[in-house]
Design goal:
Germination protein gerM; disordered N terminus; 4-stranded mixed sheet; alpha+beta; GerMN
Length: 351
């Protein structure tokens, strides 16, 4: 879906904590302008050391964790929640994916957990290989057939957010699973992010001669938008993976999709992306501007670029230029002259 459709839907985007210091989807809170009161009474109430210590302890005792949940449209979407600090972060993350479990009250409206109710589990991570083996109880098989692929994607992407997990193996009652127990979906020997998420094969004629790339579009609704990873298929003959990612962003999601894109169809790269020391540099034409008069680029568009390209192996930062100039601004008037890194966590709040 194009930028024009996104505008019709009333998309209002805010920035990333990495791109904008402190507001937007990647971190921080959205601020609202309010009319000041006609009179203000100030009470100098001291803040006790005990209060300060409690607030500090509250922050120190939580860990921001991405949980891959299912949204109302059926997409598997990361939502970053503050979970209790623990030495078993990977196991805890999966436990919060159990329906009607300990994470029930924390799950945002419009989302649901992916693992069947009463499922118990253990997680064993081999430091040498980065393989995480998850052993589920027998309750794991009590899910709806249509959720089967989504469960695989959710478990894989939730676990691989942790630096010490590269691939995932699944077991049930101590026995290795080579296929899912309800609908028989084959399970790769080493599940990874390369396996894909929210896989879109629309308009793909010969899937055998394609390879996957994951890009980020925008889902949700007004006052509650978020980024959704989608795995598309590109031709095996495509040599420039970075350009292919950008082209999928410009093309936008499938017409059958409820997702939207901030790109317009006539936005394009003026030259091949350049890669050096973990940084990809992109040079766009002026049609990337959200406002031609102000020469501003939508922050949400920049966010989708950074999220999508840093899914590529070896990409740590993205530099964006317009007509060869690095001095561009986002739609908040913030100058963006330095390469941008991927945020630690995605979808830390609605925007």
């Amino acid at each position: 879906m194009s930028k024009n459709k996104a505008k019709i839907l009333g998309v209002t985007m805010l920035g990333s904590a990495v791109l904008l210091s402190g507001c937007g989807l990647f971190g921080g809170e959205t601020q609202k302008k309010i009319d000041p009161p006609k009179s203000v009474t100030v009470t100098n109430k001291p803040v006790s050391k005990e209060t300060t210590a409690k607030e500090k302890s509250k922050v120190e005792n939580v860990i921001k964790t991405e949980l891959y949940l299912i949204d109302k449209d059926g997409y598997v979407v990361p939502q970053t929640l503050n979970l209790p600090k623990t030495t078993s972060v990977a196991k805890q993350a999966l436990e919060y994916l159990v329906a009607n479990g300990q994470g029930t009250d924390m799950i945002p409206n419009g989302f649901r957990a992916v693992l069947p109710e009463d499922t118990t589990l253990s997680v064993d991570i081999k430091k040498e290989t980065g393989v995480a083996t998850v052993n589920f109880s027998k309750e794991f098989k009590d899910y709806k057939p249509e959720d089967e692929a989504k469960i695989l994607q959710s478990v894989t992407w939730t676990l691989t957010q942790f630096d010490n997990v590269k691939t995932v193996k699944l077991q049930m009652n101590g026995h290795e699973l080579t296929e899912m127990p309800v609908n028989g979906t084959p399970i790769s020997q080493n599940l990874s992010r390369a396996t894909g998420i929210n896989i879109d094969t629309n308009d793909v004629v010969d899937i055998a001669n394609t390879k996957p790339v994951t890009v980020y579009y925008i889902g949700g609704e007004e006052d509650s938008y978020y980024y959704v990873p989608v795995t598309r298929r590109i031709s095996n003959t495509e040599k420039d993976q970075y350009a292919a990612v950008v082209n999928e962003l410009i093309k936008g999601p499938s017409a059958k999709s409820t997702l939207v894109s901030e790109f317009v169809n006539d936005a394009k790269l003026l030259e091949a992306p350049k890669y050096k020391d973990g940084v990809v540099t992109l040079n766009f034409n002026k049609n990337i501007y959200d406002s031609f008069d102000k020469k501003e680029v939508s922050q949400s568009l920049l966010d989708t670029i950074v999220l999508s390209l840093t899914e590529q192996q070896g990409v740590e930062k993205v530099a964006v230029q317009v007509d060869g100039k690095a001095e561009i601004k986002n739609d908040k008037g913030k100058k963006l002259s330095e390469p941008v890194t991927r945020p630690e966590k995605v979808n830390t709040g609605s925007f």
